[in-house]
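User: Round two. Same drill as before: sequence, then structure, for each protein.

Assistant: Same drill it is. First protein:
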Amino acid sequence: MTNKRQKQAKKTISFYKYNFSFREPYQILLDGTFCQAALKNKIQIKEQMPKYLMGEVQLCTTSCALKELETLGKELYGAKIILQRFQVRRCPHLKSPVPASECLLSMLEENNPHHYFVATQDHPLTTGLKAIPGVPLFYIILNTIVLDKPSQASLDHVQAVQLGELVSPAQQRSICSLKEEQGIGQKDGEQRKKRKRKQSNPNPLSCLKKKKKKGVPTPPLKKPEEGAKRKRSRHKKRRTEGGDMEAAPAATST
């Protein structure tokens, strides 16, 4: 049964590795309900988790999950001691703690960007987690840790990516890296388009009328062409009283 369970876990982990870019060390978020079940069933979480996943793990929790165990009293004191041994990740409820289920849901956001596994025995919480694609779930059953099969939301997301309806996070990162390598960006593209438009339009300075330069002498008057006949002025002679002829003033030609 152990080999069969590990084979199923390996298949499930490969699904999340290939489709949602999960990598070692695997980050596992735990709450008080999982630690309480492990305590009852005498399960060593730190020892069994790496063996089950066949890789390095990081066990972590939130301050809200610890605060919830403190308020529940002595019955969950053992679970609190176990949970305190793990790393405490920052959550947005440091000043005003919320229930652990609400806190874990907020840590995963809409698409589990930090690639968390979640270990819990809280059924309402698991229902909410299954609605988020790319969230592997752990629970304890029959004294063993079990990695749940991919949820329907995860399967639908993978199918949509394969049909081209969605772009996977890995594809988004590869596209961004290729754009950076080739120097292609949204702003660069806009600038290139603008430059092309400027080159295609005529130069506005060439459309302006040429201004006359100051200090340029005016062109000389045209000289009459050679061969053109000049008008001759006729001189009339006047007779004097003595009968002699006197030259009259020359008549100007208009």
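Second protein:
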Amino acid sequence: MTLKRRLPFLRWSVLRFAWAMPGFVKTGQLGDGREAAVAADVEANALAGDVDDVLATMDRFAYEKSMLVNVGDEKGALLDAAVRRADPRRALELGAYCGYSALRIARAAPAAAVYSVEFSAANADIARRIWRHAGMADRITCVVGTLGDGGATLDALAAHGFAPDNLDLLFIDHDKRAYLPDLQRILDRGWLHPGSIVVADNVRVPGAPKYRAYMRDEQGRSFDTVEHRTHVEYQTLLGDLVLESEYLG
């Protein structure tokens, strides 16, 4: 890994990201067009129908052109392993962004129907473009909304077949403040079953302290959690945590 890849502050796109964070929280985009640009880059340069090449193209874009807030290649490998352990038939992601992690889930679980909730309609359109180019449009469904909207998005998911005990894998990678409330909303619906796997990204940076405290309190009771020490996406300077939690019922 080159010095510029390893040290994020040497990349202008990372500095631009830090400056744009307040707007990102509100819109889901960084305001400089990088989200649309990665979709265009994939369509121009990745082999159509080749999910591996699409993911590799997105990783190169994030390293060499503009940093993205995908789960990334290093943490993506942790996600892949958790997906294989869960062997899901139904998977739910909270936070599609540009569609990267949903592609990893669909690749690692070829029998799964993958659903992704994304609050930004613009991001949802970008993700769908990338999924279509990767040949995964029939495997991944994006629902535009948020679980904190009073039940409308949860009801939309129920219309897609979500029901008690049929959610095998949950990946959480959206508004860090919503990690715990949204997990509780899913638990209240009874969608998880013993053996379901919940994976949460960015638990250290930017951080989801209430979620982490909850998983520590519930260790051995309702969840069995492993904390994976890793790095913030697309660099090796800043440490991060990915939590992988098996639901015990």
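The chain has one domain: 70-247.

User: Perfect.
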